[in-house]
Amino acid sequence: MTAEGRPVSVGRRGRRPGTSTSRQAILEAARARFASDGFAATTIRRVAADAGVDPSLVMQFYRSKNELYAAVMSISPDTLASLSTAFEGPDERLGERVVRAYLGVWEGGADSESLMAMLRGAITNEQASAQLREFIQARLLDGVRSRASDRHDAALRAGLASSMLVGVTMGRRIVGVPIIASADVETLVALVAPAIQSVLT
Amino acid sequence: MTAEGRPVSVGRRGRRPGTSTSRQAILEAARARFASDGFAATTIRRVAADAGVDPSLVMQFYRSKNELYAAVMSISPDTLASLSTAFEGPDERLGERVVRAYLGVWEGGADSESLMAMLRGAITNEQASAQLREFIQARLLDGVRSRASDRHDAALRAGLASSMLVGVTMGRRIVGVPIIASADVETLVALVAPAIQSVLT
Predict the structure, then answer these.
(1) Which domains can be identified in chain B, with CATH numbers?
(2) Which of the pair, B178 or A142, is modelled with greater confidence?
(3) In this structure, how many other beta carbons lie within 10 angstroms of the beta carbon of residue B168?
(4) Fewer CB near the last or first residue (10 Å), C or N of chain B?
(5) Which residue of B has its CA nearest to A181?
(6) Closest CA–CA distance from residue B59 to any residue of chain A (Å)
(7) Rounded distance, CA B126 to CA A175, Å?
């Protein structure tokens, strides 16, 4: 009911009937499957079967298992993409791009609360932790475009840089140490970007 | 009872009667006082009054409020000292000293489980988080020996370096991403020490 006492109109949805129901069924099937089988063992085909839809519909909605997992965690494809994109491109100012991308999505972005919830979940719940570690491992290995011989080294470097930046966010937002939390973004970039550059290159 | 059926002897204690009781009373009073008033507002004098002992006895047992808080968290003075000491001394190889000290106490040291429990507690419990942030803030500011004008900058740098290293430990031991968890110590030192050096100097 509105304040005036009229019944609230549900209004017209932007999508044709059935689409949002299918999306919801896919998300629920994916959440259950990731929880029971873990991220690595879950397949798009299996989630589609659980949801009673065709696998192509899952791909049409979510494009990849990574994005499906992110959607289950209420994290948008844009947020995933901005983290991945920062690691690409020339080495020059790589550290700065990565630091700005992390601070952007973890501290101010639309999904910062979802990211924080995902991290807290992994810290307090072994099942959530197992899913997250498999997801991160897959993303680290997928994200590396170098030759096979350097692939492990590049993925380790990206993983360490990411861990260090999540550590900074924890110091600022989860533990909330005043001297770290009150530092402005430009000060952080100036102090941290050369360090991240050195880990990555 | 032993396997042979003899009663277990309590044996002679190394301390005179009453000492372990006083220690226990002080620790319990400190735990309650840190929880109710926070780390910053708690005083040795107040803990002594709560425990019914003289403040000098608290100082004799624990030497400082920092060490008393650490004792409440089951962390030894040696562990605290090894973290502080790493930041002292010449700039040369400072990053390496700090990385080795962190990996030593967080991953292999006698108190690594206590440190992990303290971190998990702060992540899941707002009261524990408030205590820990005040403790870290005080340690960061106390640990800095430079001139007043640079004190804030030096404390911020030490706080960021510590956050980054706790982030690496989280990636390895709490989330447990395989590619990060399986890296050996010398590989980590080679990749991370130059980054920590750059944040600190």
Answers:
(1) 15-72 (1.10.10.60), 74-201 (1.10.357.10)
(2) B178
(3) 30
(4) N
(5) B156
(6) 26
(7) 9
Measured between alpha carbons, how far is A67 from A130 in angstroms, rounded to an integer?
17
pTM: 0.87
- The 10s digit of each residue's pLDDT in A15-45 is 455 778 999 999 999 999 999 999 999 999 9
For A60-109, what is each residue's pLDDT tens digit? 999 999 999 999 999 999 999 999 899 988 999 999 999 999 999 998 88
- The answer to whether B168 contacts A168, with C-beta atoms less than 8 Å apart, is no
Record: contact B163-A171, CB cut-off 8 A = yes
Q: Which residue has the tokens 């009054």?
A: B49
> By mean pLDDT, which of A120-124, B147-151, B170-174 is the weakest?
B147-151
Supply B20's token pair: 């372990």
Nearest CA in chain A to B128: A175
CB contact under 8 A, B177 and A171: no
Residue type, B153: D
Min Cα distance A185 → chain B (Å) is 13
Which ipTM did the prediction report? 0.86
Whole-number percent of chain A with pLDDT over 70: 89
- Between CA A123 and CA A178, with CA B168 as vertex, the angle to 5 degrees is 75
The minimal CB distance from A167 to the residues B122, B140, B163 is found for B163
Residue A187 DSSP SS3: helix
What is chain A's mean pLDDT, rounded?
89
CB contact under 8 A, B194 and A198: yes
Contacts of A136 in chain B (CB under 8 A): 175, 177
For B97-127, the pLDDT digits (tens) are 999 999 999 988 899 999 999 998 998 889 9
In chain A, the largest separation of any two C-alpha atoms, in whole Å, equals 68
Round the CA-based radius of gyration of chain B to a whole number and report it.
20
